[in-house]
Batch of 2 targets.
Target 1
Amino acid sequence: MPVFMLAILSAMAAPAIAQDAPRASVDGATFAKRLSDRMMAADADGDGRISAAEWAAGGRAGAAANPARTRRFAMLDANKDGFLDRAEITATVAARLRRVDGNGDGRIDATERAAARPARTPAAATAD
Ligand SMILES: [Ca+2]
Ligand SMILES: [Ca+2]
């Protein structure tokens, strides 16, 4: 049955996601690097800055018309030049780190990460 085969294939692809889930606690620098790498991954043309189009396409497939993402881009683009450059991303990451690090000890523990993580994978969130 083809649908069943698809389910098996999806299950086999799952470890790619699990890889990111269960780590005890990370220092602020690691957290910041991961987040900024993730943001810079949207830089499709590799010019070191993220255009509005790259931002729309880079986050999630099919998210091009997501108004929330468009609004977020406008918020992050501090100098309103239509691009997120390194400085803007660094500032964004630093602000997020401050927000996520609830007890201000410079490390992000599992509880803080779980609280900050958007609830897109409920199973992983409860496993944390
Ligand atoms: Ca770019
Ligand atoms: Ca900018």
Target 2
Amino acid sequence: MTLRIDKLAKRYGEATVFADVTLEVAAGEFVAIVGESGVGKSTLLNCMAGLDRWDAGRVTHDGTDIGALDAEACAIWRRSHVGFVFQAFHVLPHLDVAQNVALPLMLLGQRDDARVARMLDVVGLAGLGARLPQQLSGGQLQRVAIARALVHRPALLLADEPTGNLDPTTATKVMDVLLAQTREHGASLVLVTHSEAAAARADRVLHLRADGIAA
Ligand SMILES: Nc1ncnc2c1ncn2[C@@H]1O[C@H](COP(=O)(O)OP(=O)(O)OP(=O)(O)O)[C@@H](O)[C@H]1O
Ligand SMILES: [Mg+2]
């Protein structure tokens, strides 16, 4: 899938968050986005997934104009095509770990317990499937969020600081998993990070500023 962002602008009232953001991410490509706190990185990722609205410009995925979809069509599109690792995890507290990871499959009407178990294994959480989120550490929760974003093999992977709570060894393992989905299955990976180690593995590193995005 090719993600194309064209002259995107986002404002809150009179305050511009960013303007004139143009970028393209090809299938199998890994683009890292860096920038100061508050510059709009999370907002930009949300716009890429159609989770937030923008004030000017276009977001398209393989020709699908995301801004032209109504809320329901956008949710359906997102379910099949997007894996999102939120900065604040958004793990559901009343579901156990395995149910949280299985959620994207469930929303697609699929069930694959073996794949859920494999994903938990891949992120180093084998055997913790029956735990509730409150019984996990911050870094373990982050890995639940990563397993959930990958379980349905999305073509577009959007990850907001996915290694922020992880020790260097676990962070490397998590990056390996995200990159495997990108390189082996041709997903497009957009990753917001403050980690130099994570950005160093990207094909391109782009700096977001109020007046645009550039290398
Ligand atoms: N509802 C809102 N109303 C007004 N301003 C908002 C609103 N939501 C976010 N903002 C502002 O939009 C800007 C972008 O926020 P965003 O969360 O995208 O930043 P970020 O680059 O992800 O920061 P961080 O690195 O701290 O996660 C911030 O300056 C924030 O204060
Ligand atoms: Mg953010």
